[in-house]
Each structure stands twice: as structure tokens, then as C-alpha cells.
Amino acid sequence: MKKTLLQKMPPRKKEVNEVDITSLLDVLVILLVFLLSVYSSSPFEVELAEDLTLPFSSSQKFGSQAPVIQVDKYRNIWLDKDNIGTIDFDDSSEHIDFLALSLEKIKAQREKEEEGRSPKRSTASNARDNDRKRINILLDENLPYEVIQKIMHTSALEGFNEFKLIVQGGQ
Amino acid sequence: MSFIPNKKQIKGSHRYRLNLIPIMDAIFIFIFFLLMSAQFIKFNEIASEAPNIKYLEEEQQGEDEPLNLTLDLLEDRIVVKIKASGQVQKVLPLLEGKNEYDLKGLLREIKSLKENHIDETFVILNPHKSIPYKKIVTVIDTVRKLPHEEPDLRGKNKNGEIVETRKLFDQVIFENGPHNFANR
To answer: Considering the entire predicted model, what is its pTM?
Structure first.
């Protein structure tokens, strides 16, 4: 039987369309390098309040976990993500009542958690004692010292007398 | 004889392939735009403690008096004071024509104090109530440690040994400020 022209031609191989991912890999490597350069191994993480700009500092010590007080440029105060109030501009007292109440609640909560633990003293429990006194303070860079002094004074009266002033690293 | 494809062949040759390249371009430009607009903040800390009143025991009263370095941060100057009596060591006015502290002058003064008191690590800050926080942080940065370009400081410790260090006064205490300036 005579073959037609098409029948005589060898069958076309199915072309496998290969996606060239070289440029994609280039982009991903650059992305990885960028993310590594901004990576911070500090265990401290916080959601910054709006209207709060931290000052820059050459300090290189990492932050650590503890109750967090944030005060923005309008003197609104957050304690562990909760907005608890605003410092009055005309208030001349050295103590912030609503902050003291909130810190007392945190202490009470901790004491409840401690009740279940062993009363024996150990290195771990001594370390926890130090942790209990620690408080992280994030303040807007333009706040005057009188606000800072009130925050520290109130915190110290409630037993949080190890202040950790959180700043931005490097500039 | 010319080859004329039939209807089946014409139908089969129209295969539409989705071109992903413009979509991937758009996605990656979008990612870079998001990264550039995102804020990556490195959180660091400056440790400070509430001031403790320490009473000297009788046995200790014979020892050298502590330095008690105190910095009064005022609106127009920094006053460097030492010893419990508050002896004024140096007054550093603002930089000429600028509303900035003379941090270089402060560093010089701090270095000379540290060389003579290599074991001392405490500094007491006494800012005026109106001083902004960022200015206080710049002063803290200046007094805590030497800048990279400066060589190590050398001095004799209490045992008479020569000690080299890059730390200056890295333990910061805030004094109760506002009421101290009621009459200024």
C-alpha cells in the first residue's frame, strides 16, 4: 500500500516545555540574602504601637521577654497590647494610677501561677525572681523625661524595678 | 504537488499556552515593593535599675569614697558632678549655634574619669523634666562604652593592676528628676 506523505514522515516527538527557572532562583537568592541581613536573633518580639518612634542607640544587647509598656507620642499607654489609658498633660503627680492597677493585676496573675510550683528554692526559681522584676519600656523618642520618670516610678513601686529601655539598634 | 493541510491538522496546531513570565515579573516586583516599604526594626535594650539607697557599714567607711558620677542634663548644658557632695567636675554647654549636647566634650571628660576610676561602672542620670528621650539615649550611648575608632582605655584597678577596657560607665541609674529642678 502506498504511503502518503504524512505517513512517510517520522512521528513528531511531543515537545516537553521546560520552564527556565534560573532567573527565578536568582531572585530568590537575592531575597534570601536581604532577609538574612535584617534577621535578628533577639527573643524579644513586640507589635509596635502606632505613633511610636523608638530612638536609635548603639546598644547591642538583645531585649528579653517581660511585661511591655509602650507610650506613644500622644502619651497613650499600652501594657502588653492593651491600651490602658492616657497620661494627662496637666497631671503633676509622679504616679500613674491606672498603670499601677494594671501592673498589680499582672503580679496577681503571676502569683496564681506560682502557687502550683514547688516551694523549694533552686537556681531556676532564683532566675524567675529576677525575671519578675523586669519590665520592658518602649517610649517615643520625643517624650519628655517627666513622662519617663512617671512610668519608671510607678513600675518600681509595683515591684518592677529592673527597667529595660527598648531602643532601635544602629543607624 | 503542494502540501495542503486538512482541517484536522489545522485544528491541532492551534495550542494556546499560558505565558507565566509577565505574571511572575509582576509578583516579584510586588514582593520587592512590600519588602522595601516594610519596617524591619532591631530591638535592643538599655538596662537600668531603680536607685537603691545603700548605707555604708562602719567597716566600709575607711575605704575610698565612691566616684558617684552624676550627669545633670539641663536644657542648655550638661553638668558633670562627682562624689557624694556633688562636686562639679565640668560644665558642658550646648554646641555653638545648635541645640545639641557637646557629646565629644562629654566623652573626653568621661574617659579621663574612667582612667582614674577604672573599677567604677555606675553613672547617675538626672535629666530635667523637659529633656526629650532621644537626647537622653544619646548621652547614655556616649557614657556606656568607647566608640569603635577609640583605642582601649588603660588604668589601675584597686589591686594596682593595669586593666584595659572598652566599657565606660555602663550601669545607668535614673535619679528622681523633676522635683530637683523646681527652682531652676
So the answer is: 0.73
